[in-house]
């Protein structure tokens, strides 16, 4: 058995098993104490009474985790009566002490409001009264081999209060850990929603731009050139089907029972460039190296980031700068990946009013610890540049 198995959180069945063992020990110790002869010369109670007393004190410990409040009250009453009636002499009280400590530790972990202090105080008084009450009531001095008078008066508090305080502290720590775990879960869910929103934005923005461009062309030449209009419709159909497939892959990530489909990467850039070239923009692609170990070492998340950056930049060119020539260059190095998308359009591509294109690209680069720049080129056109470290972090 390794260390991880030793410190793992026990299952409920194992916890109840330990409680059963603890209850058995308490019953045996209490029964042994009940068999002890009283020091004041009183006759010992029958053995069956000693057995019932031990069972009344120890058996509730088995279910202390399920019913902490009733168990604490039951153990308190049984221990107080056993001590008050001297079924268990004060000098033989380890059994009741163990039962009270276990019961009020669990009570403290479960009950952490104002009523807990009142219950602990009342139960402490009852146990102390059970310890010293009979002797004081009879006008006798305490047994010479028993605890001192002062300790007898606070005996219940010495047994119950530390156990309850320890349980309260551990219960608070568990509650804080649970709250912290819930907060982390909510933050992770929020990050996942943002990630999916970025994916959906990139997919839909790119494909809808191409569809609108080709639809405009088809509508313009519908009467003069039916063949070209038919080609535009075929391209719209192909682009729409591709968009449906990518959206389905993104939405499948929300289902736990759906295996993750391969995400777009460097190998999908040629198809992306080909579909973007169907409009008025002429897009060319250069990937260096075209294949090899350097490309294979790029993680899927980084490849997806490169793909989405190129997709968004090319979409902006098609949407805002066409007709234009767009050059996409991806250079894969040993330490980083450089992405550059430039065009010679008359107007710079930009995110439309309320859009998130450039913001989304900047966020993707930041998630991987890279640098991003976008701005007009000298002599006209626009250029988007991203430098992504191969070992960068991603959400």
UniProtKB/TrEMBL annotation:
UniProt keyword annotations, A-Z: ATP-binding, Kinase, Membrane, Nucleotide-binding, Phosphoprotein, Transferase, Transmembrane, Transmembrane helix, Two-component regulatory system
Top enzyme class: transferase
Gene Ontology, cellular component aspect: membrane
TM spans (from-to): 15-35, 47-63, 68-85, 91-110, 117-137, 149-170
SMART domains, sorted: HATPase_c
InterPro entries listed in its UniProt record: HATPase_C_sf (IPR036890), HATPase_dom (IPR003594), Sensor_HK_TwoCompSys (IPR050482), Sig_transdc_His_kin_sub3_dim/P (IPR011712)
MF term (GO), any: ATP binding
Classification via Pfam families: HATPase_c, HisKA_3
Coiled-coil region list: none
Domain Histidine kinase/HSP90-like ATPase, residue spans: 301-392
EC number(s) per entry: 2.7.13.3
Keyword check for Lyase: no
Family matches, as SUPFAM superfamilies: ATPase domain of HSP90 chaperone/DNA topoisomerase II/histidine kinase
Name this polypeptide is given: histidine kinase
